[in-house]
Amino acid sequence: MINFEEELKNFRPSLEVEEAEQAIYNHEQTDMADVLQEMLREMKRGM
Description:
Layout: H1 4-10, H2 15-26, H3 32-46
């Protein structure tokens, strides 16, 4: 039978997961609010 407590003690997260996690959290994404704000700024400049 599997001893889950023992398995959890031996668990080490994959480096790939940690690297991906850092890349996701450190990368700024442009969302729709940013796009709309930029569009409004451009429209105001054009008037």
